[in-house]
């Protein structure tokens, strides 16, 4: 299981090479920060337990300089390196057999906060939620909100270009990063920790590392952009007769509310039926299950928006009520309820946030995360459902997601749990997505889970350029090997 | 002057090689679209006439396929290729001696508009303003606003990652692009024309081409994001006693108005004095010249914001008046006037938009375009002025720019116009900018103008990675050679 190559370490036995490497790692960051054997078990298990690892060791550097020494050493030994943040990924991006896991858990420093420029400069090991706690006192927030943000670290959120519910207003993790510090596999440090909103000085290298899932270098620091902390929310659940009606409501709300519209989360009928049939079925506010329910949320930091009138309604709630009233008047929306307090808001969000629990007792399932252009999503969802059912009539199928981003998470609980059948179902999802000009990974990334999709559907020209870049940044191939980039096909058809 | 290498075309004389190349170009896109000699003169002159070119020919392809054939041919002949959009750049990014200029002026197709998804798919030869004309009827706009947007083409705006006055609300050109079509130097077409807001399927290659100034490939198409067309504006001029006070007003306005705040343009005293002393001095609304005047603009597409009250004031104007009134009350702002109609709004913008005319009769001048972190800009501006004056006490010096982005355009009209002295002045600007953790090019790019700054101030690690990427994408070095990437220093100190 040990993947250390011996072409640089001479003729010693593998065991001696390992001991040598571990000893040198201990010298770099202290013996207590080099974990082996059973000590690695909590790191070796990913969030969902789908991609167990057997690392050579877990090393916990305390500084960028230590990361640099570790990578230089690993590079000399030809030892695979797997960067490890909160380990909350869903696609096997940290899986390893014999590689060195580099955990950033000790690199948790908030380096600087600039309230005027609305930036925070942080170590990559800082947890997403901790950034928010650090900047809250300035009336600011880091507006990246996703299920795992209480565990996920900034380095991982950037390496996977995390998305979530607020992408509609603020973009993916990529859009929230101004600068990076990255250690390259040979130990060199790329210091691009700039807090600049305009910076046209050559190729924008940070965008290569963001979303590269640790295959090009190890992110050790980042300069993040911040936005105002909302002081008030207006949250509603609406029902629509078609996803295209949802898009009409989206257009109207955006025109009226601009970037105050922070979430537009869709729960199609397939999801609602599963949700309401589950054991802990939450209260559902509409008499009937609509074709889709959509969770709409406005947020504002403006003092004028948060002062309630004598009925206890804020101007923000009034604005939402007016717009939704008009949507109902024109028949675009069939039902609507607005939360009037934090408890009601939480109850509406629970409908959406229960999504991960719905697969309990059903695993393994085929879980996909796709996006399509917005004008096609209304046709895509039923078409996908039909394609899946035509090959597996008994499958449980539901979708839930971020309508404003054209992003649906798909769950198919197949009757036949054989890997072959499940692979066929995944392939049907991918093929349908590609037919609708979509992406087979919207926000979860490739990892090892979607390597076959990369081989099948990514443009050969893009793959060729990606491989060229990989060879420049990581000539020895030590950085998170086997992720993102599929092996070349037999016959190397994309070779020049 | 002819830069065709002969290592691939054998032993024929250069003249014969040229004739051969021109004939083949004519066969690809029609003889009338291959211009030589005097026919090239309007293409060979850049906007400001600072970087005259002597191209082998100007070729005007009509399709991506023709661009592909042209690049493949040029690559085989080792002939430099210079992509040409509206030719409005300021840094010599299209300068060539003997290269083939590929003008995109015939590629002007709006390929598709998705009003629901708010995207437009266009040829790279479409002029920025034309995108706006095409999407206006859907109540949408492409919110990239800069001086040359009536001439600049989408391909050039993306290749240079154009900025401008609305970056504060919408980001640079990079942030407004979802997908690209690029022809690589060997003629292969990278088709990444996706209209997806979430797309995590490997390295995000489009961000390499955006801002690469045509050195990695030739952009032939793009999918752009659109935003709502404002139906009403509220525009004001404010005076402040310090740039840091301007930042306080910025923070307050953002909290109150979110992304409705679209412009926050700063005109420091140095600029105002030059402006008001010029021949066509516009009316200035304040009794005295403040330390800085700032043009503030809110925009809204919300129907409720544009209905005027009985005094003719829209709710948007009332909001701005309230916030500025409070700023005056707390002493952050010293003076303020609000435009109450389109004419008054235009008059305020004229104060800012006159900037390019102020160098009339003074050229050559040292013109720089830098950015610094926002919390340092209040100290940076006077410090820079002092540094320049200490080496050239008689120089005319002014700055003007985008305060919300930390971006200042600097003009120094030196007494001594020798290239050596002007280079020293530029160097002082660069050094001061770097001392304040800034960028020596905020939005204009590198071209050939800032090659020395790249050599002196860009991280050697970044330069090394950029050169590696260039070698992968353009192994024969035909794409816009001599731009962006400085030659290696004698002794190749960055070589491994």
UniProtKB/TrEMBL annotation, chains A, B:
Residues 51-229 form the FAD-binding PCMH-type domain. Pfam families: FAD-oxidase_C, FAD_binding_4. Keywords: FAD, Flavoprotein. It comes from the Bacteria. PROSITE patterns: FAD_PCMH. SUPFAM superfamilies: FAD-binding/transporter-associated domain-like (SSF56176), FAD-linked oxidases, C-terminal domain (SSF55103). Belongs to the FAD-binding oxidoreductase/transferase type 4 family. This is FAD-binding oxidoreductase. It comes from Sulfitobacter porphyrae.
């Amino acid at each position: 299981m040990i993947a250390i190559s011996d072409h640089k370490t001479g003729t010693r036995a593998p065991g001696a090479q390992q001991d040598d490497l571990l000893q040198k790692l201990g010298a770099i960051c202290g013996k207590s920060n080099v974990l082996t054997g059973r000590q690695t078990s909590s790191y070796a298990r990913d969030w969902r337990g789908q991609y167990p690892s057997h690392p050579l060791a877990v090393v916990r550097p305390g500084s960028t300089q230590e990361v640099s020494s570790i990578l230089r050493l690993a590079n000399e030994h030809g030892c695979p390196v797997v960067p490890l943040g909160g380990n909350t990924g869903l696609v096997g991006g940290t899986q390893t057999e014999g590689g060195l896991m580099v955990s950033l858990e000790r690199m948790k420093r908030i380096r600087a906060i600039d309230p005027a420029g609305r930036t925070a400069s942080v170590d990559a090991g800082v947890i997403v939620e901790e950034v928010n706690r650090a900047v809250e006192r300035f009336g600011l927030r880091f507006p990246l909100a996703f299920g795992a943000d209480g565990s996920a670290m900034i380095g991982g959120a950037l390496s996977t270009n995390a998305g979530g519910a607020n992408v509609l207003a603020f973009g993916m993790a990529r859009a929230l990063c101004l600068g990076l510090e990255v250690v390259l596999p040979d130990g060199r440090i790329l210091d691009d920790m700039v807090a600049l909103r305009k910076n046209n000085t050559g190729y924008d290298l940070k965008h290569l590392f963001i979303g590269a899932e640790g295959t090009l270098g190890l992110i050790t620091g980042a300069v993040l952009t911040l936005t105002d902390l909302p002081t008030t929310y207006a949250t509603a659940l609406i029902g629509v007769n078609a996803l295209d009606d949802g898009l009409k409501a989206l257009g109207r709300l955006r025109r009226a509310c601009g970037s105050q519209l922070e979430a537009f989360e869709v729960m199609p009928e397939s999801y609602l039926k599963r949700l309401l049939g589950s054991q802990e079925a939450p209260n559902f506010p509409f008499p009937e299950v609509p074709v889709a329910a959509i969770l709409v949320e406005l947020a504002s930091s403006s003092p004028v928006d948060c002062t309630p009138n004598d009925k206890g309604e804020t101007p923000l709630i009034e604005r939402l009520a007016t717009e939704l009233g008009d949507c109902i008047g024109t028949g675009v929306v069939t039902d609507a309820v607005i939360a009037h307090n934090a408890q009601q808001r939480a109850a509406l969000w629970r409908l959406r946030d229960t999504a991960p629990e719905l697969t309990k007792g059903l695993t393994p399932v085929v879980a996909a995360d796709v996006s399509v252009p917005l004008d096609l999503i209304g046709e895509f969802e039923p078409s996908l459902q039909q394609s899946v059912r035509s090959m597996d009539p008994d499958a449980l199928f539901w979708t839930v997601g971020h309508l404003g981003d054209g992003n649906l998470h798909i769950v198919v609980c197949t009757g036949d749990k054989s890997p072959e059948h499940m692979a066929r179902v995944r392939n049907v999802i991918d093929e349908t997505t590609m037919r609708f000009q979509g992406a087979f990974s919207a926000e979860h990334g490739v990892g090892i889970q979607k390597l076959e999709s990369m081989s099948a559907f990514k443009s050969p020209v893009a793959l060729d350029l990606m491989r060229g870049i990989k060879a420049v940044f990581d000539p020895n191939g030590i950085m998170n090997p086997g992720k993102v980039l599929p092996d070349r096909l037999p016959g190397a058809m994309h070779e020049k």
